[in-house]
Amino acid sequence: xxxxxxxxxxxxxxxxxxxxxxxxxxxxxxxxxxxxxxxxxxxxxxxxxxxxxxxxxxxxxxxxxxxxxxxxxxxxxxxxxxxxxxxxxxxxxxxxxxxxxxxxxxxxxxxxxxxxxxxxxxxxxxxxxxxxxxxxxxxxxxxxxxxxxxxxxxxxxxxxxxxxxxxxxxxxxxxxxxxxxxxxxxxxxxxxxxxxxxxxxxxxxxxxxxxxxxxxxxxxxxxxxxxxxxxxxxxxxxxxxxxxxxx
Length: 247
Fold this sequence. Notes:
Blueprint: H1 3-14, H2 34-37, E1 45-46, E2 54-55, H3 56-70, E3 76-80, H4 85-101, H5 106-113, E4 130-135, H6 157-166, E5 172-174, E6 191-194, H7 195-205, H8 210-216, H9 227-238
Antiparallel strand pairs: 1-2, 3-4, 4-6, 5-6
Helix pairs in contact: 4-5
């Protein structure tokens, strides 16, 4: 990310100024390699653990947002950040093996997996810009990443309300919104994306030949990724997201 632009952005957010959605339309042309875009290495990633590894600009913005939330007794905790291609492949293939072992045919297994999990090479977590968040000050349920924890009397309601009001001023936007007309991945109130970097990354990602990548990487079940399936997956799972995260 352009450092001057980032410093200007963080100066504004430090003053509590809301940054309009257009802030992310910065000229990232051919800034990202294929490997960066599919989770196979990124020089802009920092961190030393599963929950702290993320894009350096997202990390700086998150630090500012966490400090602001702490003033309201909310301790934002990251439970998932950067995820490599190999890790996503492991997740996908384990589920594929389990579901087909339970009697689903390959196409049914893939459809079940992509209700919540991405196909390796297509995850926004590959970019280091997308984070799954909980409130460490709230009681921790056995399964943290379920929507009911963020609504009603759920333990993370206070954090969710605060994020709804303030996260965009720090550059973070909910990805898979609670919109009945939205297709693709289910609603994920815990999943936020750092827009100043993820928007230009998505723009360049869309130029990749997804089918060729999946065949080349020999993802289990890849022979069932037909042209029709990939077209639908691209339209629903990759692009049917919060409109503010589209270029």
